[in-house]
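Table S2 (continued). Query chain:
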Amino acid sequence: MTVPPQDPRGVRPDQPHRSARPSADGGPVQGAPAGPPRGGQQGPPPQEARPQQPQQPRQQGSPPQPTPPQQPAPPQQPAPPRPQGPQNRIIDTSSGRDDGLDKCPTCGGTDITYSLTAKALVCAYCRHEWNEVNAEEAFGLNTSIADLHGHTLASGTADVREDLTMMTLKCQGCGAEVVINVNQELQARCHWCRQTLSVNSQIPNGAVPDAVLPFQLTREEAIAQISAFADKRKAFAQGRFKSEFVPENVMGVYIPYLVVDGSMHAQLGGRGEVTTRQYTVRTGSGKNTRSETYYDADVYSVQRAFDLLVDDLTVESAQRFDARDNSHATNNILNAVQPYDTENAVAYNSNYLKNFTSERRDLNVRDVDDEVEEKFLSIARAKATPTIGRYDRGVRWEQEGVAVRGTRWVSVNVPVWLYSYADSAVGDGLVHYIAVNGRNGNTMGSVPVSHPKIFAVSCFAGSIAAVIGAVVGFGWFFAG
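Corresponding output:
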């Protein structure tokens, strides 16, 4: 959710250009205002060179003149310290619990699962139900975005270490040590006392986020959503897909996202056109007559500058699901099932991930920084759109940029029901995904289509159009 700009109309009034029409070659109009000046500190003025006194020649035989004592140089004042830019601020979002037993707050049991029916964590022994605290309230992540300066990073967004794969958990019940692969699982059972051991600390391999957004849709609801989506597209689907489609194979997956808040100043500059006259010119004669419509327009220099606050912008942080790489899988559909109500995410507890699969974050903040800045620019353009309605021929932005004052980054795992189908007819096999938002049920995906079916329908439609055209043509011929 973004905060609207603070009256960008009144920041800088639009001034009409000297020339009322664009140049004939379609290039920029002469006399266009330059872009915003780039401020820079001027250096100190150059010091004037001191004139050297001419040395008096010493006559031969005369005694040497004594050299006057040199005055000691005044002590140099220490240079003032250079101002430092805003430092990164780290917010500790760790649970504070030791790795190992994660106990029920009522009876101390460790057999805990997340119930989709109760929408809460449930102890298998005493049936106690509870949820972790809201992450924004617990860790102070809901403070004013306008007050952000520099980078504020939750501890779960630390840089990923690829070399950390194995971890030893010590059971507090019997003292046994259990080794697990933290790239694949965050819980294990003690092989002696059968109690559940959990990774509670934020290990720097990207597997443990700051917060978790639990599932709301049940598995049955997700199956119904996927079946309805595929049924609407089975007319052109491959026959193999129809026979092999089993929506019950859907899996619940937690996808890692980086959630960003930002405070910035946006500045846009360009040219807008307002139509002053529209007329039609006919050229040729007889059957060669044709009409062309021309427009006259006034060209204006358009400037917009405003403060902008961006709240809960989500960015994928698993390279496997990069929306720009669709060569092996239809990853782009994951962005189509947004938005997620990340403001309702709770503090991380590994029991929320139990009976689900989860992806590990393998992208750092610096890896997605350019993508986030481009999204900031897109939001700025959208916020400026309501203020340029008077330019009926549109506005072309030529200079645009955002000056980010402060950002806040949080790592959140969001819930997705995911169905996958490997199309073996395409090279190594293109994986088609159908995704369902685990919170609100938004569904999007792709199914393998049959190209012969599409070609046959196109030929049939073309034939019908040709027959109708022929009938209409013969009718005109005989009527004339």
